[in-house]
Structure formats: C-alpha cells, structure tokens
Amino acid sequence: MTYRFAVIGAGRQGTAAAYDFARFGEAELVLMADSQLAQAEAAARRVNQLCGHALAEPTQLDASNPAEVVAFLKRRGVNAFVSAVPYFFNLGLTRAAIEAGVGMTDLGGNSDVVLAQLALSQEAEAAGASIVPDCGQVPGMGTTLILYAMEQLDEPRDVFMWDCGLPQRRELPWDYRLTFSIEGLTNEYHGDCLFIRDGKTTRVPALEEVETLSFPDPVGTLEGFTTAGGLTTAARTFAGRLRTLQNKTLRFPGHFAKLKVIQWLGLLETEPLEVNGQRVVPRQVLHTLWEPQIRAQPDTRDFILISILALGLKSGTEAEARVELLHRYDEQTGFTAMEQGTGWHAAIMTEAITRGQVPRGVIPVELAMSGSAFVAEAARRGFQVKLDMARS
Fold it and tell me: Is the entire prediction scored with pTM above 0.85?
C-alpha cells in the first residue's frame, strides 16, 4: 500500500522528514508546502535528487489559514502530514487535521500549545484522526528513548536526560550553530519546564540548575541546564509512576553565562516595549541581531547527543539503564545531525500513523510507539542507540 504525505514548512527539518517519507514511508506522493513557493520548490527538488525519481511536489500554502490548509489536505488526498513550521502554528493545524480527518505530527516544543492540542483528543478521535505532537529530536526522540530506558527496568523510579545539538568544532563568540527555527530556540530558553519531582508534575524555570558533565571523547566537558518544552506530555503521563523525570540541554562551557545575560536584559520577553515612540518586541530584536551570528553555514558539521540514565528495580534488585545516542552530520545526504534527529523521528511517527499503528485522538509521543519499536526503526536509518545495564 502507498500513501500521500504532506510536509507543511519546507525548511531544514521538513525536507529531512520528506526524504524519510520517500525512502521508508511507502510514499506515492510527498507534497512540500510552504508560504514561499521558491522554498517549497527547492526542497522538492532536493528530495527528488536524493531519491533519484520525482516523488516530491512543491505547493504554496499559508499555514496560518486553517481553511486553506483543510482544503489542501482534502483536495490532494493527504493521508498524514508533519507540521515543520514554528510551534505557534500547531494548534490551528491540529484543528485543520481534525476537520480534514487526516493524521498529523509536529515538532512541538511549547508546553502550553501541546496541552491545548491534547484537549482536542476527543474531537480527533471522533474524526478518525491520529495526531502526535512534540515529535523531533527533543521533544520527541528524547522522550521515546526515555521510554526505551524505562522498558529495561521492571520498576523504573528516577529518569534523567541530557541532550544537545552542537557544532563539531567550537567557534567563538557563541560556540553554537543554529540548525532549526530561531523561534524554536528562544522558546526553549523562556518560561517553565514540566518535570516530575517527588512523583508530581512540577514547573521548573528555564535557564536554571546549571551543572558540569563529562562525556567520552570526542564530546568532552559540557554544561547542562533546564530548558522548556522537552518533556511536556511525559511529565504528565508518568507522574505517580516515576519519582523523578527531568531533562537538561547541553552546551559548551561558557555558553550558559551568555544566555543568562540575554535573559537578564529581557531580550527573551514577548511583551512589547516603547522605544523612541515605537512599539518593539524584545524577542524579535534578539532574533534580528542574533540569528545571523549563529545560523549554521553550508560547511557546518554538527552532532546530536541524547544521554539517559534510568534508575529502578530489575528482578528485585537496584539497577540502572544507560541509553545514549551520538549521531553526526551525514556527508552522503548533506543532512545535519539535527535535521536527521528532528525530521526522521517525526517521519517515523507519521508513517506509523498511516499504517494504523497509532490510536485515534491526540496521542502523547510516549504513548504513540514503544521505545523498542522506535529503536528498531532508528537503526534502519543509521542511528546507533547504545544500551548499558548495571546492577548494584
């Protein structure tokens, strides 16, 4: 059986997802939709070149117009789509998916938006639509690998995750390169994280609780600190079952201090200020000034790291499961590690929807697919997930 997929947002992560649809999704058509037709055309051309045949087709689409999205989904007979646009479009696209009765995943990252999507689960179920928010690298693959770590224990108790996407070579002054949306990045640095502390879902401020960690070469020493949006649904799903669940974002040493200065200056805020008689949004100023300095260049080579420690009981004794994924830029396809981790996780979940493997409704990512099933799919794509078990 073949399927019709759509990618709404034909940027870096969306193009990676489309490639996965073409290679692994039994696709008969992949529609690359973007507000900028030239962007959609370039993405479709790249996917077709990589696949060696014309499977991707460009189209212009306004993701902020739900009626236009519904008409597009119905007219083209789309089975499922991935939202690869900034998080603030996802609630409207969820409503469009429900109205059209088609499957959907998104790249998530904003807890308030995801909770609003979950509130539409009964409507999605009635429409026969399966919708999985918060896919991607983190949120997304990190949560699925947390589930994989928990599956190794009979009674998981405390789970900790650290993750990053970083350039392989440090570059001053930021020691960071952005390979996805600037809106997604600054969203992680503002507001509260949803964790589990003492068995309860708890809000913890972003950009706090900094720690220094050491990883085997070639990664080395990194800083870890709290960021928002990484565990939204898992922090609710596993409350009461886990005593602790948390994640921290990793950066090269010294980067955290620069982020705190940005925060202290108020540049992450979204409420307008008056400057010389003009209304100015501080975060938009930050985007304008900062993005050109940190945007990944064509020659940027990056890596992603997801490291998970799960503690609990195995056969009645204390045990720990360590899960680690280290993945790099792909020289063959030209996809960055972040594009692979983000786009391919979303694609795997979208493909599971088309095959009827995901329940109807708005389904938390940790309930959409088992950790073991995902690891098997990830291996087909070259992800090497390492598992180490130890007992005390």
Answer: yes
